[in-house]
C-alpha cells in the first residue's frame, strides 16, 4: 500500500499538534488536569491560541489525543495472520512491550490515577479509547487462532488477559510505581518469549492419543 506524503501545511500542522500534546501532558503532570488551561498549554507549546483551539476545542479533546498517541503503533493496521500462534503472539507481545515502555504511556496512567477522584471521565476515556481497543485486537487474534485450529481457547477474553498481564506485570507496573525502575531490552525479550511459550503450551490443541493397534 502506498503512503500518502503529507503536504508542507499538513506537516506543519502535525508538528504543532505534537508540540501541543507534549506540552499538555507535561502540564497535566505538573499542575493537574483541572489547573491546566488551554491558554497555558498554548503558551508552553509555542503556538497561538487560535491554532490550539482549531485542533483541540476542549481539554477533553486534548486528553483524547494523549490517549490516542500513547496507544498508537506504526503497524497497528497489520495484525498477524492466524496459523502460527508462536509467531503471532511474539509479534503482539513485542508491540505491547514497546507500548508499555514508552514515557507517554507511563505519563498517561499517572495523569489518570492522579485525577481519578475528581475526573473519572479521564479513566473512562483511557479505558474505552486506548486499553480496550488494544485488548480487543488481541482477543480477536486469539479467536482467529482458535477458529483456525492452531490452539483451543474456550475463553479468549481470559487468555488475552493472561497473556498481556504476564508482560505488563513485569515491564510496566513496577516502572509506574518505583522511581528509576528499568528493564533491559534483553530482559523484556525474555519476558515476552516466556509469555508466548506459556500461552502456547496452555492452549495447545490436543495431539493424537496413544495408538491402540497391535
UniProtKB/TrEMBL annotation:
Keyword annotations: DNA-binding, Transcription, Transcription regulation
Record GO terms (molecular function): DNA-binding transcription factor activity; transcription cis-regulatory region binding
Alphabetized InterPro entries for the sequence: Homeodomain-like_sf, HTH-type_TetR-like_transc_reg, HTH_TetR, Tet_transcr_reg_TetR-rel_C_sf, TetR_C_Proteobacteria
Residue ranges annotated for the HTH tetR-type domain, each copy included: 14-74
Transmembrane segments: none
DNA-binding region(s) in UniProt: 37-56
Species per Swiss-Prot/TrEMBL record: Micromonospora yangpuensis
Swiss-Prot/TrEMBL GO biological process terms: negative regulation of DNA-templated transcription
Superkingdom field: Bacteria
Name of a matching Pfam family: TetR_C_7
Transport in keyword set: no
Name of protein: Transcriptional regulator, TetR family
Protein's UniProt keywords contain DNA-binding: yes
Amino acid at each position: 500500500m502506498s503512503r500518502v506524503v503529507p503536504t508542507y501545511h499538513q506537516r506543519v500542522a502535525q508538528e504543532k499538534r505534537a508540540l501541543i500534546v507534549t506540552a499538555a501532558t507535561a502540564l497535566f503532570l505538573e499542575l493537574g488536569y483541572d489547573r491546566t488551561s488551554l491558554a497555558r498549554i498554548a503558551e508552553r507549546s509555542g503556538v497561538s491560541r487560535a491554532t490550539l483551539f482549531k485542533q483541540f476545542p476542549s481539554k477533553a479533546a486534548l486528553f483524547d489525543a494523549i490517549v490516542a498517541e500513547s496507544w498508537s503503533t506504526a503497524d497497528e493496521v497489520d495484525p498477524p495472520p492466524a496459523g502460527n500462534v508462536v509467531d503471532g503472539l511474539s509479534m503482539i507481545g513485542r508491540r505491547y512491550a514497546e507500548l508499555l515502555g514508552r514515557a507517554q504511556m507511563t505519563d498517561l496512567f499517572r495523569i489518570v490515577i492522579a485525577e481519578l477522584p475528581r475526573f473519572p471521565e479521564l479513566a473512562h476515556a483511557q479505558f474505552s479509547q486506548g486499553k480496550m481497543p488494544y485488548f480487543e485486537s488481541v482477543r480477536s487474534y486469539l479467536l482467529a487462532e482458535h477458529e483456525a485450529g492452531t490452539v483451543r481457547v474456550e475463553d479468549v477474553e481470559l487468555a488475552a488477559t493472561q497473556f498481556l498481564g504476564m508482560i505488563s506485570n513485569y515491564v510496566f507496573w513496577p516502572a509506574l510505581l518505583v522511581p528509576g525502575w528499568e528493564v533491559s531490552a534483553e530482559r523484556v525479550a525474555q519476558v515476552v518469549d516466556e509469555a508466548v511459550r506459556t500461552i502456547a503450551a496452555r492452549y495447545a490443541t490436543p495431539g493424537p492419543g496413544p495408538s491402540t493397534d497391535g
